[in-house]
Write a structure and sequence with these properties.
By secondary structure, this protein is mainly α. It has helices at 5-16, 19-28, 35-42, 46-59, 78-109, and strands at 33-34, 62-67, 70-75.
Length: 122
């Protein structure tokens, strides 16, 4: 029995649902990056990075490239970079809406101005 498309999409987004994986994909947008450089940028244990890279590799989103003793990773295709750009645009819109709401809330917190001198004034 074939997996419904919506379920396959959910599994795909679940696979992306780890901060280290997202950070790796962001770093790979500019081209192949050596594992040692990924470790420097992400600052996690090598074993943790290795696990996250394995998940991305198994999914087919990244490929590994070996040159001598250096292992680098690269995006398997440009669509992942476009997905990350789309996510950035969506988050920008969402956060802009939240900033507008926050500004309205802050404006509502300001005390109402009380006229000086009132009736019968000073």
């Amino acid at each position: 029995m074939q997996v419904p498309l919506y379920q396959a999409k959910a599994e795909f987004f679940r696979m992306l649902g780890h901060p280290v994986r997202i950070r790796v994909l962001e770093l790979l947008q500019g081209g192949p990056v050596a594992v040692r450089d990924l470790l420097t940028e992400i600052e996690i244990e090598p074993s943790s990075l290795s696990q996250q890279l394995a998940v991305l590799r198994r999914s087919g989103i990244v490929v590994s490239i070996r040159e001598g003793s250096t292992v680098s990773y690269a995006l398997a295709g440009g669509d992942v970079a476009e997905l990350l750009r789309a996510a950035r645009r969506i988050l920008t819109e969402l956060l802009a809406g939240q900033n507008e709401l926050l500004a309205e809330l802050r404006q509502a917190e300001l005390p109402l101005s009380v006229p000086q001198g009132g009736p019968g004034g000073v």
